[in-house]
Amino acid sequence: MKINFIDLQGQYQAYKSEIDAAIHNVLDSSQYIGGPYMEELKQKLCAYTGSKYCIPCSSGTDALLIALMAYDIGAGDEVITTPFTFIATAEVIAFLGAIPVFVDIDETTYNIDPKLIEAKITPKTKAIIPVSLYGQPADMDEINAIAKKHNIPVIEDACQSFGAEYKGKKSCNLSEIGCTSFFPSKPLGCYGDGGAIFTNDDALYEKMNSIANHGQTERYIHKYVGINGRLDAIQAAILSVKMNHFEAEVAKREAIGARYTELLKNAVVTPVVKADRTSPYAQYSVRVKDRDAVMKKLGEAGVPTAVHYPKPLYIQEAFAGCTQKPEEFPVTERVTKEIMSLPMSPFLSEAEQDFVVAALTK
Description:
Strand order of the largest sheet: 1-9-8-5
CATH architecture of the largest domain: 3-Layer(aba) Sandwich
CATH class of the largest domain: Alpha Beta
Shape: globular
Distance between the termini: 16 Å
CATH topology of the largest domain: Aspartate Aminotransferase, domain 2
């Protein structure tokens, strides 16, 4: 049996006629920036998350960058975040000349451990960026409470958790700003790079919307130094179509994740999703001893796997100036050596899942 790690082709075939028609509508209009699909997408994303404002943008990375720029974060400032995530979270901090300050993770959820955050706050701390890793929201109430106490904004990196819920609210609408990614493999993915920023704050929206469009407040009038952070119309059209099917896909992801957990509970360390939140399982990640050998055996059996993530950010060459040492992050050190992601998509059949489970159990 040939298993896809993520079945993007199966998804495309399921919605092919709708997606093709939407793309051709954009091509026929020759309006490749902005346009009706962009407005439609904004409305759908706001309605889904419950956010007042949505700014579709060029990537999840740019979404995070624009959020930091909106708070005027720059040289010498500190931003608290997790070392166990894709580099984009810390990359945008360093790009602005600020310093990523890493906090170890919770061993159950793999998200930033809120109990360790306050000790890392200094007068230079200008923001906290919790990552909702693998799809499960971080402990946002605890993090927001700490931030409020110190008058620090919270930017939720929801690049893996669009579709998740936390205490009845949607991820992306759990703090001052939420940022997500529409990279093709995400729970809601386009056919290239894309992302979005969410907020309920009028002033933040105006500023971020301007920054995403070269700092313009009107044509050729530039209030801020900005970037070209727009999403293109073809990606907006694709995402707008996919939003029509998204809730059904999230339900399938949750069911597939729960089934994996039930079938694998005695074989490996399975994900734990807290009772007050949900996860669309952007990745379904388990922990195993002797990971490399297990992955090699699975590959030989025809089961693709991946590691999210094998190397913590504090030892990446890009952050060679980081003064924080591995011994400060015992949980991250353990998890990065054992974590492994299995095939996951709403189009994974029970037969395919049974094949993966049998191979891994063996």
